[in-house]
Amino acid sequence: MPTNRFRLTAAVAAASFVAIATGLVSTAPQAAAATSSVYRVTAGKSAVTDSAGQSWQPDATYVHGGSLSTSKNTVANTATPALYRQQRTGDSSYEFPVSATGTYGVVIDVAELGNKSPGQRVYDVLAEGATVASRVDVAANAGKNTAWHLVFSVPVSDGALDLDIRHITGQPAIGAIAIDDVKPGLAPAVTFDDEFNGVSGSAPDAANWSQDIFPGNNNQLQYWTDHDATADGNGSMVISARKESFTGGDGVTRAYTSARLTTAGHYTWFYGEAEARIFVPAGQGLWPSFWSVGQKGPWPSNGEIDGMEMKGQEPKIDHGAVHGLNTNYSEWTYHATTTSTTPLAGQWHTYAMLWQPGVVETLVDGRPFMAVTPADVSGADIWPFDSQPFVLRMQLAVGGDFVGAPSRSTVFPANMLVDWVRVTQ
């Protein structure tokens, strides 16, 4: 694995993908995220308090170059537009003293507020002298007047985290920068790796996975069993949704079965990147997903990260989301989609969840399409992603509120294949 592993929300997205952020749910006062905050700075001459109650200080102490500007434009997809309306434009360099050698997570808040079209404002971001975001084009990635993030981690061993913003076309525009301490080590490590190399017909490795056995929720039609996930003998785990009469432990007979795998009791992760190479099936009423939840507490207070959710009837669209509990004791959701010009279903793709202090990002084939921070959600929305380890889950559901019932055209058995699952921290 590379020694400076990162993912970039504003890295150049392939032309076949269009990111669409679809907003926020809920209202009213949230506790600040429990991150190990190092720096929160914003362009401009005055401090900003975000929706989570975190104070962002003016960046003047740490920056050289660039000029300040302010916009009154409405900024979409964030609960704290002030972090994006104040901008530092032009080439600039930042130096943030850090007290310890280690890996630091960086989130740069950006928005295209100057009415630039794609290709008119393009720039690189360097950290510790290495390019971490190449050809950033916010207008192309997010559209105009929409909150967007650059997310990456960087090892620092010289006492200062250095960032450089360098133009390619037009003038760069930076809103705010958050830096957090991630870990003392400088190199990433693979902490979980299942290549699914079992013999044909064998169950998932019991050292890594358990199989849930109970009825589906969210009005799903299947019963989760322990006989619907088996190795194919060619390096993949096959999760099969079957049309079969099955009476579960609750005494109810259902028309479908499938499998849900979880690392609960075997493995948890706290920050890092979880990736899976998956082949999802198409078909009305099929609901494949790769996701993660907090290991303790009732849902949604424990938090949920959806790295991949698809509707079988919409084979070109992948959904990313995070869920939590708000102060009104109801669920909140932040959600985004990415649409491909060719079907994602029926093809192999890599789906990922990147999780750093104060940010969650989802990606397809390395292309980010959703990133969310505590400052982007309502003040009522309690941020649950910096307080405990999470477990991994993957499944293929049938029916439910998200996708509706299968149709006569849906082919069974429907197979979701998983080539590998890895976590790098």
Question: What features would you describe in this structure?
Answer:
This protein has 425 residues and is mainly beta. It contains two helices and 30 strands. It has helices spanning 82-85, 138-141; strands spanning 17-24, 37-42, 48-49, 55-58, 63-70, 86-97, 102-110, 122-127, 130-136, 148-156, 160-169, 173-174, 176-183, 190-194, 210-211, 222-224, 229-231, 237-247, 253-258, 260-262, 272-279, 286-294, 304-309, 317-325, 331-340, 348-356, 359-364, 367-372, 390-398, 414-424. Strands 14, 16, 17, 18, 19, 21, 26, 27, 28 and 30 form a ten-stranded mixed sheet that branches.
Keywords for this entry:
single chain, 425 residues, mainly beta, ten-stranded mixed β-sheet, eight-stranded antiparallel β-sheet, 2 helices, 30 strands, 2% helix, 49% strand, disordered N terminus
